[in-house]
Specification:
single chain, about 400 residues, mainly beta, Porin, 18-stranded antiparallel beta barrel, two-stranded parallel sheet, 21 strands, about 5% helix, about 55% strand
Length: about 400
């Protein structure tokens, strides 16, 4: 059964190379919603939001393919009545056939093998009172081993119950959750037929966290129990300081997993990173080390994973069933509102010929405080060890968003 869990999370990941998401938190947009006086006011004072997205991908590999898709999200969230609010969102993506390949030249990552999908991806009840919040239903979640990972046309969402409580004076937040199912590109929606929602473990996943944050330090402790698969502990600590006009950020992380019922998931990933920003230039270096016992493998999560060296395609767990190391070096430059990004990653197994490199080149531009944005990435993957030809995978992805 664990094979189903692990195979469902494999896929490409669009990581923001220079955005170090050091403490991922649960997205609870209704936390501070103002109360209304009646059920009617809940809906009349509700808010509508959404996004229209045009996406294009062109893959140059053993099987060259390309596709264009038009899609996005439409969401409505009520105001709160006695702390209770409701929310729902439809996600969709439709292939533009005239601008997409056909047959073996069609790329299904932006839509599906059917060329389209439409999903009630969010549908929840939220209760917020003071520093306490509880949400149940289909919702966006961003944590180290379960995240939205919005890398293609729409993000992942989860069927879950999530509670959080914040001690503001101490800067501490506690989170407890149960995750049952999830959907999205890493959950293999492109090949789904009757059900695009995949299980997060045979009987789900339990999750708990304690998070501390002040002006220059962030620290988090996460625990996951993935039913019939693994117990996982994730820790990260990140600090930032300004020195001589240079903003410096340092971070460490550690993921430890122990198998349940001989599932085969057992290992750990440790990592360090350093980032420096001077004026409009940002430099970053990161290192991850993966260690697994013979015959075991690592599980990087339901989504893109949290490792510092994770890139668009390759992650720290690329060679997940053997000891390996990965390094990432990146350069970012901000000019006239655009972010230009260049990154190089090296992923190498300790005791085999498995070796891959990746170069990510990108430019991102946001217009009118995020009303619209565009991102263009060119990814160059190389199988340096001549053992995994699928890693020779160059592709271009263009995304245009209008947000409202």
């Amino acid at each position: 059964m664990i094979i189903v869990i692990i195979s469902s999370i494999k896929g490409l990941r669009m990581k923001k190379i220079l955005k170090i998401s050091l403490i991922a938190s649960v997205a609870l947009s209704s936390l501070y919603a103002a109360d209304t006086n009646s059920v009617k006011d809940m809906f009349t004072n509700g808010s509508t939001s959404g996004q229209v997205r045009l996406g294009y991908i062109n893959v140059n590999s053993a099987d060259d393919n390309y596709a264009t898709a038009l899609g996005g999200q439409l969401k409505f969230e009520t105001a709160a009545l006695s702390g209770v609010s409701l929310g729902a969102a439809m996600y969709t993506s439709q292939s533009v056939n005239s601008l997409s390949g056909s047959g073996d030249e069609f790329n299904s990552e932006l839509t599906s093998t059917n060329g389209n999908y439409t999903e009630l991806a969010e549908a929840y009840i939220n209760y917020g009172m003071g520093d306490f919040n509880f949400r149940i239903g289909r919702q966006l979640i961003d944590t180290p081993l379960a995240d939205s990972d919005d890398i293609r046309m729409t993000p992942h969402t989860f069927e879950a119950a999530v509670a959080s409580y914040t001690l503001k004076d101490l800067g501490v937040t506690f989170i407890g959750a149960n995750l049952q199912r999830w959907q999205g590109v890493d959950a293999d929606y492109e090949n789904a037929t009757n059900n695009s929602w995949a299980d997060t473990g045979i009987d789900g996943t339990w999750m708990g966290a304690a998070i501390y944050e002040n002006d220059n330090t962030e620290a988090a402790l996460w625990y996951y129990n993935i039913d019939k698969a693994a117990n996982a502990i994730y820790i990260d600590v990140v600090g930032s300081v300004e020195f001589g006009g240079v903003d410096i950020t340092l971070g460490v992380q550690y993921l430890s997993e122990s198998e349940i019922d001989s599932s085969g998931v057992d290992g750990n990933i440790m990592g360090v990173m350093a980032e420096a920003t001077v004026a409009d230039v940002t430099l970053m270096a990161a290192y991850n080390n993966l260690s697994v016992d013979a015959g075991k493998e690592i599980f990087e999560g339901f989504g893109g994973g949290s490792s510092f060296t994770n890139m668009d395609t390759n992650t720290a767990g690329l060679f997940g069933d053997e000891d390996s190391a990965s390094m990432l070096f990146s350069l970012g430059y901000e000019i006239i509102g655009a972010n230009i990004i260049a990154a190089y990653g090296d992923f190498k197994a300790d005791d085999s010929d498995n070796h891959a490199t990746e170069i990510d080149l990108g430019v991102e531009y946001s217009y009118n405080d995020g009303e619209a944005d565009v991102a263009l990435y060119y990814i160059i993957g190389s199988d340096e060890g001549n053992t995994n030809p699928e890693l020779d995978d160059d592709h271009i992805q263009l995304t245009l968003n209008y947000n409202f």
